[in-house]
Amino acid sequence: MMGQLMKNDQDWNAKLVGLMCCMDERDKVQKKTFTKWINQHLMKVRKHVNDLYEDLRDGHNLISLLEVLSGDTLPREKGRMRFHRLQNVQIALDYLKRRQVKLVNIRNDDITDGNPKLTLGLIWTIILHFQISDIHVTGESEDMSAKERLLLWT
User: Where does the Calponin-homology (CH) domain lie (predicted)?
Assistant: First the structure.
């Protein structure tokens, strides 16, 4: 009986390790893909992101990305202190909210602190809004979300 419990625990641990490995791999692929997507747009203003989590922390690249995607000019703080970084990220988040982009549980300090999951989530939301919302497919209606269009398109 005890031997069976230990075997079940080992099987469970092996499955957890495998699952974590897959999740880490998925995050790496998303990070690489999103970084390339961002750089494709930032090259228009001669900027470049090397590390997605680090290079968005001060908000400058995030604001530049939104400016390129939208054609709008956004204000920004020029200082280098944490307060300025938080303010720049907040400017970007507020801009997205004004454009009716739904941001769930993403705060300025999450991005400023380099939170990988929430940074990936923010960039995916930006991609959905600015890239995928431009997809036009047969059978779509005007009030379809970007996610619904993507699913219809596939």
Answer: 28-131
Which two tokens mark 11? 């099987």
**What CATH code is carried by the domain that includes residue 22?**
1.10.418.10
The 3-state DSSP class for residue 116 equals helix
Q: Which domain range does residue 9 map to?
A: 2-131
Residue 86 burial (CB count, 10 A): 20
* Neighbouring residues of 152: CB distance < 8 A, sequence distance ≥ 6: 137, 139, 140, 144
12 belongs to a structural domain: yes
Residue 138 lies in a domain: no
> 57: alpha, beta or left, given left = phi > 0 and alpha = psi -120 to 50?
alpha
Model pTM? 0.77
Instruction: Give pLDDT tens digits along the chain (154 positions).
Output: 544 544 556 666 666 555 555 668 889 999 999 999 999 999 999 999 999 999 999 999 999 999 999 999 999 999 999 999 999 999 999 999 999 999 999 999 999 999 999 999 999 999 999 987 665 555 656 666 656 655 665 5
